[in-house]
Amino acid sequence: MDVTNTLAVVMMDVYWVNLEISVTKRVMFNMHIAVIRDLQTNSSHKREKYGCGKISCEDCGKTFTRLSNLHRHHRSAHRSNSFRCQTCGRCFNRRDNYLRHTRNHPDNSDKESYASVKVTNLKNSDNGDKENMCPNQSGSGKSSTDIKDNEAEEVKEDCISEEEAIEGHLKKVFIEATDKSKYDPLAFLKMKEETIRSILRKERTKRKRIKFYITLQVRFTKTKGDQLEKAKPHFHGRCHILLNNEDIEPTLRESIMKIFNAFIEYQREGSNWVLDKVLGVAIHIVQYNPIKGSSYLSLPAKLASKKAIVNGQNTNQKCFMWSVLAALYPVTNHPERVVNYVQHIEKLDFSGISFPVRVGDIPKFEKRNDISINVFGYEKRELYPLHLTRERGLKHVDLLVLNRGDTSHYCWIKSINRLLNDGQKGNQLYHCHYCLHGFTKQQLLEKHVPNCEVHGAQRTEMPTEEDKWLEFSDVSKQLKVPFVIYADFESILERHYGCQPDPSKSSTIKLAKHIPSGFTYKVVGLSSNITMNHVTYRGHDAVDKFIDHMIKLEDELSGVLRESKPMDLSEEETKAFQEATKCHICNKELGEDTIRDHCHVTGKFRGAAHSNCNLNLRLRERIPVFFHNLKGYDAHHIMNALGKYKHKKINYIPQNHDKYISFSLGRLDFVDTFQFLSTSLDKLSSNLAKEGLHKFPHLQAYVATTHPRNEQTKLQLLSRKGVYPYRYMNSFKKFQETTLPPQQAFYNDLDGKTVSDQDYLHA
């Protein structure tokens, strides 16, 4: 026996003499000493294995230079938690920490405990599953040392942790997912519903009024190339106010349903994300302190100048009472002096109302006294409603709440009209007490109030007999846009070389990287006079050049749209106007208000129209840019480059994280034609060619200009989609070649085929 081992035995004997410990702890101490002996026996082996002076832990492999450090590590990291607080469930490794905690623990005898929350058995399970262990828990139930062996498996354990901030005003309770339900979000939420309900019940009882919302935390994974990506989105329920325990059930169910719907929406709209596991659910709780009036505050100068508010000069916290009494029993002289209303206090029922009065307690006062009360706030020179009465009482009172720091104060609004009017003659309005809308006449206000006090700021109006039919009236949407831009990108396919994926797992194989090599676009106007020639560009900066071209086009075309060309009326058009009997816009009979309608961009006469129809036919200053399969391909190139153009306003309509239905850059609206014609360009062009080459007017104009001698032959060749060696074009050097590559170069990786002899001949 070496010196260290002898010291260990002596230390054990000293402990037996000087410490009064339980049988359970004595057994654990013997186990610990046995571990020390075992470590000493194997110390030479560990030094040989890990190097001179290093000793490793048998459980985790961590190495230490001193034996005392290893002992400390073993006590703190690998010993079972022996001491549990029976009040809050917190566990301690050391007895002195446990005793200190129990001495300083607040008395919770008058508080509701988590009746249905059971804490984790802190003894290591036989299967070594450490995922079910939680070192810091809240709850009640049996101590782990009190649970019998045959009971341990029957206990459904909840691993709960708590965090507090701002001196306990904010609290977060996290329930970790540790059982089989962690793979099903709805099942997990349903299983933990009673636990959450108990936590909310305890916190509501403790704090009286709380705001809370629930967050489900999950982990998604997806395979991207050779890597496994992970995401941890949070799904939030709606924020609710709890004033009593009866509201817990409906608010909790609403939150769970909202969370689950958000989860389903995320999976449907996400891009190949797959649920890995549910991490847990967090309950975020905050003390709810609604606005309440208390001490006297002076009126802001702007409000005082209107002479519309009576500000009671109270010295206690009963400004609500004095303001209501001032409204019900007004006096002429010095209405701000509360002594004028002392004799009327007994006429109102304030039972059950605590002072200072919170806005949330006002409905209770209204019911007991048959008085309707509206409460308004004032901030940044604006009046806004805080409480609008649901029913009109026998008497009505409007109150204003002033806030200054932590102090609030009620005042009586003597005249809502005087308060809201600007004070200038000729601009006087009559305001509704419910929605604050102003009317120019008292009769209009009286007609409005019965609907507003019942339905709020809305009303249901049934159509009359003459106006019971619905018909299309938004005729301006039928007006053709003056300009349309058609565009397309081409890319070189730079080969991708990497490790082969695991054949036993699902994976995506990267074949090539698409690098934009060039673009073509054409601006088409309402007439050939304003239609522009197509533009083609090739280069490494193709995307940046394209966006630069689009920005310049936006400025140029916007200037054309702002100009208004005069109407150039021919004799035939003059005769057609004189003989017209129906409006060409709404197709109704013309009357005395008939005018000549023309296009302000081209100056072309469009037809006879009503004056109102002509005014409603407004030109939208938007320029659509059409790509075929924009969402699936071209948008990726454009969006990667748009970050450089921060001075331009960018809006977008996303389908998911990777795809955009549409987006706009300034006045340019980028639209995917595949959303309207969901087939390939090859099929679309071949179908159109069957109806005749006259269906390609812009192609005809281009060929007539560039190839006038063999126009028909060129039209036949160009009226179908071209054959392109996508795989072969893997670098910009290939563009310098002067001969057509062999037929094998047209091999398609997607379908594993090369082009036919006929297609190669066409190329």
From TrEMBL:
SUPFAM superfamilies: beta-beta-alpha zinc fingers (SSF57667), His-Me finger endonucleases (SSF54060)
SMART domains linked to this entry: ZnF_C2H2
Compositionally skewed regions (Polar residues) per UniProt: 134-144
One Gene Ontology molecular-function label: zinc ion binding
Stretch list, region Disordered: 121-151
Keywords: Metal-binding, Zinc, Zinc-finger
Coiled coil: none
Matches recorded under PROSITE patterns: ZINC_FINGER_C2H2_1, ZINC_FINGER_C2H2_2
Zinc among keywords: yes
Domain C2H2-type: from-to ranges: 55-83, 83-110, 430-460
One Pfam assignment: Endonuclease_7
Protein name, per record: C2H2-type domain-containing protein
Organism, scientific name: Magallana gigas (Pacific oyster)
